[in-house]
Amino acid sequence: MIQNLIARTAGSVGAQTFVLRSALIGVNFVIMLGLAALLGLEAYGALMVAWGLTLVMSTILSVGGPLAMLRNLTNGGVMSHRGLFDQAILYPALVAAVCWIVLPRWLPIADWQIIIPSAFFINAVTCLASLARALGSIRVSMVLRDGAPQLALGLAAFCMLIWPFLPPLFIIGVAGAILGLVTLVGLYRCALHPEFCRIVEPGRAVLPIETGLWGASVLGMVLAQIDIIVGSRFLSGDQIGLYALLKRIANLVALPVSVATWITAPPVSAAFGAGDDEGLQAASRRGSRVALVPGILLFLTAVFALPFLPLDSEPQGSLIYLTLLGSAMVQVVFASSFTVANLCGGALHAAAARIISICVYMLFAIYAGVELSPLVNAVAYAVGTAVGSLALWAVIWERLGVDTSAIALLRREATIWKPS
Protein backbone atom coordinates (compact mmCIF):
# COMPACT_ATOMS: atom_id res chain seq x y z
CA MET A 1 0.00 0.00 0.00
CA ILE A 2 2.67 2.54 1.00
CA GLN A 3 4.80 1.70 -2.04
CA ASN A 4 1.83 2.24 -4.33
CA LEU A 5 1.06 5.57 -2.67
CA ILE A 6 4.66 6.71 -3.06
CA ALA A 7 4.69 5.73 -6.72
CA ARG A 8 1.40 7.51 -7.39
CA THR A 9 2.52 10.58 -5.49
CA ALA A 10 5.75 10.87 -7.45
CA GLY A 11 3.88 10.35 -10.69
CA SER A 12 1.19 12.90 -9.94
CA VAL A 13 3.28 15.90 -8.97
CA GLY A 14 6.70 15.22 -10.46
CA ALA A 15 10.04 14.65 -8.83
CA GLN A 16 11.17 18.25 -9.31
CA THR A 17 8.31 19.61 -7.22
CA PHE A 18 9.15 17.32 -4.31
CA VAL A 19 12.85 18.10 -4.59
CA LEU A 20 12.00 21.79 -4.41
CA ARG A 21 9.68 21.22 -1.46
CA SER A 22 12.37 19.21 0.33
CA ALA A 23 14.87 21.99 -0.26
CA LEU A 24 12.46 24.57 1.18
CA ILE A 25 11.88 22.37 4.22
CA GLY A 26 15.61 22.02 4.77
CA VAL A 27 16.26 25.75 4.40
CA ASN A 28 13.40 26.65 6.75
CA PHE A 29 14.71 24.18 9.30
CA VAL A 30 18.24 25.58 9.17
CA ILE A 31 16.97 29.17 9.44
CA MET A 32 14.86 28.39 12.50
CA LEU A 33 17.68 26.63 14.31
CA GLY A 34 20.13 29.34 13.30
CA LEU A 35 17.89 32.12 14.64
CA ALA A 36 17.37 30.28 17.92
CA ALA A 37 21.12 29.71 18.31
CA LEU A 38 21.98 33.29 17.36
CA LEU A 39 19.41 35.04 19.56
CA GLY A 40 18.84 32.62 22.43
CA LEU A 41 15.42 31.21 23.33
CA GLU A 42 14.06 34.34 25.03
CA ALA A 43 14.89 36.75 22.19
CA TYR A 44 13.90 34.11 19.62
CA GLY A 45 10.51 33.78 21.31
CA ALA A 46 9.98 37.55 21.19
CA LEU A 47 10.94 37.56 17.51
CA MET A 48 8.52 34.74 16.69
CA VAL A 49 5.67 36.49 18.50
CA ALA A 50 6.34 39.65 16.46
CA TRP A 51 6.70 37.56 13.28
CA GLY A 52 3.38 35.87 14.01
CA LEU A 53 1.72 39.27 14.38
CA THR A 54 3.34 40.31 11.09
CA LEU A 55 1.93 37.27 9.27
CA VAL A 56 -1.54 37.91 10.70
CA MET A 57 -1.30 41.56 9.72
CA SER A 58 -0.29 40.59 6.17
CA THR A 59 -3.58 38.74 5.69
CA ILE A 60 -5.52 41.66 7.14
CA LEU A 61 -3.85 44.04 4.68
CA SER A 62 -4.44 41.65 1.78
CA VAL A 63 -8.23 42.24 1.60
CA GLY A 64 -8.33 38.76 0.04
CA GLY A 65 -6.32 39.88 -3.00
CA PRO A 66 -3.93 36.91 -3.40
CA LEU A 67 -6.74 34.34 -3.20
CA ALA A 68 -9.02 36.37 -5.49
CA MET A 69 -6.24 36.69 -8.07
CA LEU A 70 -5.40 33.00 -7.83
CA ARG A 71 -9.00 31.87 -8.24
CA ASN A 72 -9.84 34.22 -11.12
CA LEU A 73 -6.64 34.07 -13.12
CA THR A 74 -6.19 30.29 -12.94
CA ASN A 75 -9.72 29.77 -14.26
CA GLY A 76 -8.98 31.52 -17.54
CA GLY A 77 -9.99 34.98 -16.31
CA VAL A 78 -8.18 38.25 -16.83
CA MET A 79 -7.72 41.47 -14.90
CA SER A 80 -6.73 45.02 -15.69
CA HIS A 81 -3.50 46.79 -14.89
CA ARG A 82 -5.47 48.94 -12.47
CA GLY A 83 -7.00 45.85 -10.91
CA LEU A 84 -3.56 44.40 -10.31
CA PHE A 85 -2.41 47.67 -8.78
CA ASP A 86 -5.51 47.96 -6.58
CA GLN A 87 -5.35 44.39 -5.27
CA ALA A 88 -1.61 44.28 -4.61
CA ILE A 89 -0.85 47.87 -3.60
CA LEU A 90 -3.72 50.36 -3.22
CA TYR A 91 -6.14 48.43 -0.99
CA PRO A 92 -3.39 47.03 1.27
CA ALA A 93 -1.83 50.51 1.55
CA LEU A 94 -5.15 52.04 2.60
CA VAL A 95 -5.74 49.38 5.24
CA ALA A 96 -2.13 49.73 6.41
CA ALA A 97 -2.57 53.49 6.81
CA VAL A 98 -5.63 52.95 9.01
CA CYS A 99 -3.83 50.32 11.08
CA TRP A 100 -0.78 52.59 11.39
CA ILE A 101 -2.95 55.26 13.01
CA VAL A 102 -5.23 53.06 15.13
CA LEU A 103 -3.19 50.13 16.43
CA PRO A 104 -0.38 51.98 18.26
CA ARG A 105 -3.02 53.83 20.30
CA TRP A 106 -5.65 51.15 20.80
CA LEU A 107 -3.48 48.02 20.92
CA PRO A 108 0.05 48.97 22.01
CA ILE A 109 1.30 45.40 22.36
CA ALA A 110 3.91 45.49 19.60
CA ASP A 111 6.09 47.76 17.50
CA TRP A 112 3.52 48.31 14.74
CA GLN A 113 5.78 50.80 12.92
CA ILE A 114 7.98 47.85 11.95
CA ILE A 115 5.32 45.13 11.72
CA ILE A 116 2.87 46.94 9.41
CA PRO A 117 5.32 47.81 6.57
CA SER A 118 6.81 44.30 6.70
CA ALA A 119 3.31 42.81 6.52
CA PHE A 120 2.60 44.97 3.47
CA PHE A 121 5.57 43.49 1.62
CA ILE A 122 4.72 39.92 2.68
CA ASN A 123 1.30 40.41 1.10
CA ALA A 124 2.92 41.90 -2.01
CA VAL A 125 5.12 38.85 -2.53
CA THR A 126 2.07 36.61 -1.95
CA CYS A 127 0.22 38.48 -4.72
CA LEU A 128 3.27 37.94 -6.91
CA ALA A 129 3.06 34.20 -6.12
CA SER A 130 -0.56 34.14 -7.34
CA LEU A 131 0.47 35.92 -10.53
CA ALA A 132 3.31 33.44 -11.10
CA ARG A 133 0.88 30.54 -10.58
CA ALA A 134 -1.48 32.06 -13.16
CA LEU A 135 1.44 32.23 -15.59
CA GLY A 136 1.93 28.48 -15.18
CA SER A 137 4.96 28.36 -12.87
CA ILE A 138 3.86 26.33 -9.87
CA ARG A 139 7.39 25.95 -8.49
CA VAL A 140 8.21 29.67 -8.61
CA SER A 141 4.87 30.32 -6.97
CA MET A 142 5.68 27.88 -4.16
CA VAL A 143 9.07 29.47 -3.55
CA LEU A 144 7.57 32.95 -3.39
CA ARG A 145 4.66 32.11 -1.10
CA ASP A 146 6.14 29.45 1.17
CA GLY A 147 9.86 30.14 0.98
CA ALA A 148 10.49 33.85 0.38
CA PRO A 149 9.32 35.19 3.79
CA GLN A 150 11.39 32.67 5.75
CA LEU A 151 14.40 33.13 3.47
CA ALA A 152 14.15 36.90 3.91
CA LEU A 153 14.03 36.41 7.68
CA GLY A 154 17.18 34.31 7.50
CA LEU A 155 19.02 36.83 5.34
CA ALA A 156 17.98 39.65 7.66
CA ALA A 157 19.45 37.72 10.59
CA PHE A 158 22.91 38.26 9.11
CA CYS A 159 22.47 41.93 10.04
CA MET A 160 22.68 40.82 13.67
CA LEU A 161 26.14 39.42 12.96
CA ILE A 162 27.27 42.66 11.32
CA TRP A 163 25.53 45.06 13.72
CA PRO A 164 24.99 43.10 16.97
CA PHE A 165 23.81 46.22 18.82
CA LEU A 166 20.58 46.32 16.80
CA PRO A 167 17.39 44.95 18.48
CA PRO A 168 16.13 41.54 17.27
CA LEU A 169 12.89 43.10 16.00
CA PHE A 170 15.01 44.94 13.41
CA ILE A 171 15.28 41.57 11.63
CA ILE A 172 11.59 41.80 10.66
CA GLY A 173 12.05 45.26 9.18
CA VAL A 174 15.01 44.13 7.08
CA ALA A 175 13.09 41.03 5.97
CA GLY A 176 10.24 43.28 4.81
CA ALA A 177 12.66 45.41 2.78
CA ILE A 178 14.13 42.28 1.16
CA LEU A 179 10.65 41.06 0.22
CA GLY A 180 9.86 44.45 -1.29
CA LEU A 181 12.92 44.16 -3.52
CA VAL A 182 11.96 40.59 -4.46
CA THR A 183 8.47 41.80 -5.42
CA LEU A 184 9.81 44.52 -7.71
CA VAL A 185 12.22 42.16 -9.47
CA GLY A 186 9.58 39.42 -9.71
CA LEU A 187 6.94 41.74 -11.14
CA TYR A 188 9.41 42.92 -13.78
CA ARG A 189 10.15 39.32 -14.76
CA CYS A 190 6.44 38.47 -14.88
CA ALA A 191 5.79 41.47 -17.14
CA LEU A 192 8.29 40.01 -19.64
CA HIS A 193 6.46 36.66 -19.69
CA PRO A 194 4.68 36.04 -23.04
CA GLU A 195 1.43 35.13 -21.25
CA PHE A 196 1.38 38.26 -19.07
CA CYS A 197 -0.45 40.38 -21.66
CA ARG A 198 -3.12 37.69 -21.96
CA ILE A 199 -4.12 37.66 -18.29
CA VAL A 200 -3.41 41.31 -17.46
CA GLU A 201 -4.99 43.63 -19.99
CA PRO A 202 -5.98 47.29 -20.10
CA GLY A 203 -9.66 48.13 -19.97
CA ARG A 204 -10.78 45.10 -18.03
CA ALA A 205 -13.04 45.28 -14.98
CA VAL A 206 -11.45 45.60 -11.55
CA LEU A 207 -11.72 42.54 -9.32
CA PRO A 208 -14.02 43.31 -6.39
CA ILE A 209 -12.99 42.79 -2.79
CA GLU A 210 -14.18 39.31 -1.84
CA THR A 211 -14.91 39.48 1.86
CA GLY A 212 -15.41 35.72 2.14
CA LEU A 213 -11.92 34.92 0.88
CA TRP A 214 -10.51 37.77 2.95
CA GLY A 215 -12.13 36.53 6.13
CA ALA A 216 -11.07 32.95 5.48
CA SER A 217 -7.43 33.94 4.96
CA VAL A 218 -7.38 36.09 8.10
CA LEU A 219 -8.95 33.34 10.21
CA GLY A 220 -6.51 30.78 8.81
CA MET A 221 -3.50 32.89 9.73
CA VAL A 222 -4.93 33.75 13.16
CA LEU A 223 -5.40 30.05 13.85
CA ALA A 224 -1.83 29.31 12.74
CA GLN A 225 -0.35 31.92 15.11
CA ILE A 226 -2.83 32.20 18.00
CA ASP A 227 -1.10 29.79 20.38
CA ILE A 228 2.19 31.69 20.10
CA ILE A 229 0.60 35.15 20.36
CA VAL A 230 -1.73 34.28 23.27
CA GLY A 231 0.83 32.01 24.93
CA SER A 232 3.34 34.84 25.01
CA ARG A 233 1.07 36.72 27.43
CA PHE A 234 1.29 33.92 30.03
CA LEU A 235 4.54 32.03 29.43
CA SER A 236 8.05 33.17 30.27
CA GLY A 237 10.43 34.32 27.55
CA ASP A 238 12.37 31.06 27.52
CA GLN A 239 9.16 28.99 27.52
CA ILE A 240 7.59 30.76 24.56
CA GLY A 241 10.92 30.67 22.75
CA LEU A 242 11.21 26.90 23.11
CA TYR A 243 7.53 26.45 22.30
CA ALA A 244 7.85 28.55 19.14
CA LEU A 245 10.94 26.60 18.05
CA LEU A 246 9.21 23.24 18.59
CA LYS A 247 6.12 24.39 16.74
CA ARG A 248 8.14 25.65 13.78
CA ILE A 249 9.82 22.25 13.55
CA ALA A 250 6.51 20.41 13.92
CA ASN A 251 4.90 22.57 11.23
CA LEU A 252 7.38 21.20 8.71
CA VAL A 253 5.30 18.02 8.78
CA ALA A 254 2.31 19.94 7.37
CA LEU A 255 4.20 21.61 4.51
CA PRO A 256 3.07 18.95 1.96
CA VAL A 257 -0.47 20.25 2.52
CA SER A 258 0.43 23.42 0.63
CA VAL A 259 1.81 21.28 -2.23
CA ALA A 260 -1.48 19.39 -2.35
CA THR A 261 -3.42 22.65 -2.40
CA TRP A 262 -1.49 24.12 -5.32
CA ILE A 263 -1.67 20.92 -7.35
CA THR A 264 -5.31 19.97 -6.79
CA ALA A 265 -6.96 23.41 -6.87
CA PRO A 266 -7.50 23.44 -10.68
CA PRO A 267 -9.00 19.91 -10.94
CA VAL A 268 -11.19 20.48 -7.87
CA SER A 269 -12.53 23.73 -9.30
CA ALA A 270 -13.05 22.19 -12.75
CA ALA A 271 -14.83 19.10 -11.40
CA PHE A 272 -17.16 21.14 -9.23
CA GLY A 273 -17.95 23.53 -12.09
CA ALA A 274 -18.78 20.61 -14.37
CA GLY A 275 -20.90 18.86 -11.74
CA ASP A 276 -18.59 15.85 -11.91
CA ASP A 277 -19.02 14.19 -8.49
CA GLU A 278 -16.63 11.33 -9.23
CA GLY A 279 -14.04 13.76 -10.58
CA LEU A 280 -14.36 15.88 -7.45
CA GLN A 281 -13.83 12.86 -5.19
CA ALA A 282 -10.88 11.76 -7.32
CA ALA A 283 -9.31 15.23 -7.09
CA SER A 284 -9.81 15.23 -3.32
CA ARG A 285 -8.19 11.81 -3.02
CA ARG A 286 -5.30 13.05 -5.11
CA GLY A 287 -4.75 15.92 -2.69
CA SER A 288 -4.74 13.49 0.23
CA ARG A 289 -2.30 11.24 -1.60
CA VAL A 290 0.07 14.10 -2.35
CA ALA A 291 0.12 15.20 1.29
CA LEU A 292 -0.01 11.89 3.15
CA VAL A 293 3.18 10.04 2.19
CA PRO A 294 5.55 13.03 2.55
CA GLY A 295 3.69 13.98 5.72
CA ILE A 296 4.23 10.54 7.25
CA LEU A 297 7.90 10.52 6.28
CA LEU A 298 8.41 13.99 7.75
CA PHE A 299 6.53 12.96 10.89
CA LEU A 300 8.80 9.95 11.40
CA THR A 301 11.88 12.07 10.72
CA ALA A 302 10.69 14.62 13.30
CA VAL A 303 10.12 11.89 15.88
CA PHE A 304 13.60 10.45 15.31
CA ALA A 305 15.03 13.97 15.77
CA LEU A 306 13.54 14.20 19.28
CA PRO A 307 16.73 13.16 21.18
CA PHE A 308 18.70 15.93 19.46
CA LEU A 309 16.40 18.82 20.38
CA PRO A 310 17.32 21.30 23.17
CA LEU A 311 14.66 20.20 25.67
CA ASP A 312 16.70 20.27 28.88
CA SER A 313 15.09 23.51 30.07
CA GLU A 314 11.52 22.13 29.82
CA PRO A 315 10.57 18.97 31.78
CA GLN A 316 7.58 18.31 29.51
CA GLY A 317 9.38 19.26 26.31
CA SER A 318 8.98 15.84 24.69
CA LEU A 319 5.22 15.79 25.31
CA ILE A 320 4.86 19.33 23.96
CA TYR A 321 6.77 18.39 20.82
CA LEU A 322 4.79 15.19 20.21
CA THR A 323 1.50 17.03 20.75
CA LEU A 324 2.44 19.67 18.18
CA LEU A 325 3.48 16.93 15.76
CA GLY A 326 0.07 15.33 16.24
CA SER A 327 -1.59 18.64 15.42
CA ALA A 328 0.43 18.89 12.21
CA MET A 329 -0.59 15.36 11.22
CA VAL A 330 -4.25 16.31 11.65
CA GLN A 331 -3.72 18.91 8.93
CA VAL A 332 -2.12 16.26 6.72
CA VAL A 333 -4.99 13.81 7.20
CA PHE A 334 -7.55 16.45 6.20
CA ALA A 335 -5.34 18.07 3.54
CA SER A 336 -8.12 18.37 0.94
CA SER A 337 -10.85 19.78 3.17
CA PHE A 338 -10.15 23.50 2.90
CA THR A 339 -9.34 23.26 -0.81
CA VAL A 340 -12.67 21.58 -1.56
CA ALA A 341 -14.61 23.88 0.76
CA ASN A 342 -13.15 27.13 -0.60
CA LEU A 343 -13.49 26.16 -4.26
CA CYS A 344 -16.85 24.41 -4.06
CA GLY A 345 -19.10 27.04 -2.52
CA GLY A 346 -18.20 26.30 1.08
CA ALA A 347 -15.98 29.27 1.97
CA LEU A 348 -18.30 30.18 4.84
CA HIS A 349 -18.09 26.64 6.19
CA ALA A 350 -14.28 26.79 6.01
CA ALA A 351 -14.35 30.07 7.90
CA ALA A 352 -16.73 28.59 10.48
CA ALA A 353 -14.39 25.62 10.99
CA ARG A 354 -11.51 27.95 11.74
CA ILE A 355 -13.69 29.97 14.12
CA ILE A 356 -14.54 26.73 15.93
CA SER A 357 -10.84 25.88 16.25
CA ILE A 358 -10.02 29.35 17.56
CA CYS A 359 -12.90 29.25 20.07
CA VAL A 360 -11.92 25.80 21.35
CA TYR A 361 -8.35 26.96 21.85
CA MET A 362 -9.45 30.17 23.59
CA LEU A 363 -11.75 28.24 25.93
CA PHE A 364 -8.77 26.14 27.03
CA ALA A 365 -6.56 29.22 27.41
CA ILE A 366 -9.18 31.20 29.35
CA TYR A 367 -9.88 28.26 31.64
CA ALA A 368 -6.17 27.79 32.36
CA GLY A 369 -5.56 31.53 32.74
CA VAL A 370 -2.32 32.38 34.49
CA GLU A 371 -1.76 28.64 35.05
CA LEU A 372 -1.38 28.10 31.30
CA SER A 373 1.67 25.91 30.76
CA PRO A 374 3.44 25.15 27.46
CA LEU A 375 1.95 21.64 27.45
CA VAL A 376 -1.60 22.88 28.07
CA ASN A 377 -1.06 25.46 25.33
CA ALA A 378 -0.01 22.72 22.90
CA VAL A 379 -2.92 20.45 23.86
CA ALA A 380 -5.40 23.32 23.48
CA TYR A 381 -4.07 24.09 20.02
CA ALA A 382 -4.09 20.44 18.94
CA VAL A 383 -7.65 19.86 20.19
CA GLY A 384 -8.89 23.05 18.53
CA THR A 385 -7.30 22.06 15.22
CA ALA A 386 -8.79 18.55 15.38
CA VAL A 387 -12.31 19.71 16.28
CA GLY A 388 -12.39 22.30 13.49
CA SER A 389 -11.02 19.84 10.92
CA LEU A 390 -13.55 17.16 11.86
CA ALA A 391 -16.40 19.69 11.70
CA LEU A 392 -15.43 20.82 8.19
CA TRP A 393 -14.97 17.22 7.01
CA ALA A 394 -18.47 16.36 8.27
CA VAL A 395 -20.06 19.36 6.55
CA ILE A 396 -18.38 18.56 3.21
CA TRP A 397 -19.46 14.93 3.49
CA GLU A 398 -23.03 16.03 4.19
CA ARG A 399 -23.21 18.68 1.44
CA LEU A 400 -21.17 17.14 -1.37
CA GLY A 401 -20.83 13.48 -0.45
CA VAL A 402 -17.04 13.77 -0.77
CA ASP A 403 -14.63 12.25 1.73
CA THR A 404 -11.82 14.79 2.11
CA SER A 405 -9.86 12.77 4.65
CA ALA A 406 -6.96 10.41 4.02
CA ILE A 407 -9.32 7.54 4.88
CA ALA A 408 -10.60 7.84 1.30
CA LEU A 409 -7.26 6.42 0.13
CA LEU A 410 -8.09 3.09 1.77
CA ARG A 411 -10.88 2.56 -0.73
CA ARG A 412 -10.02 1.13 -4.12
CA GLU A 413 -12.64 3.22 -5.90
CA ALA A 414 -13.95 6.70 -5.22
CA THR A 415 -17.11 6.42 -3.15
CA ILE A 416 -19.73 9.10 -3.75
CA TRP A 417 -22.56 9.52 -1.29
CA LYS A 418 -25.32 12.03 -1.76
CA PRO A 419 -27.79 12.99 0.96
CA SER A 420 -31.36 12.14 0.11
Give an account of the 3D structure:
The chain is mainly α. Helix content is 77%, strand content 0%. The chain has 17 helices and no strands. The chain has helices spanning 2-13, 15-39, 41-62, 65-73, 81-106, 112-134, 138-162, 170-191, 196-199, 211-231, 237-251, 255-274, 277-304, 317-333, 337-343, 347-368, 374-400. The radius of gyration is 21 Å and the shape is globular. The two termini are 34 Å apart.
Q: How much is the average pLDDT?
A: 84
Q: Uncertain spans, ≥5 residues at pLDDT below 50?
A: 1-14, 414-420
Question: What's the number of extended β-strand segments?
Answer: 0
Q: Cα-atom Rg, whole angstroms?
A: 21 Å
**Helical stretch count?**
17
The share of residues in extended strands comes to under 5%
How would you name the oligomeric state of the polypeptide chains in this document?
single chain
Please give the alpha-carbon distance between the first and last residues: 34 Å
Shape designation: globular
Helix content: over 70%
Quick summary of this structure?
This protein has 420 residues and is an all-alpha fold.
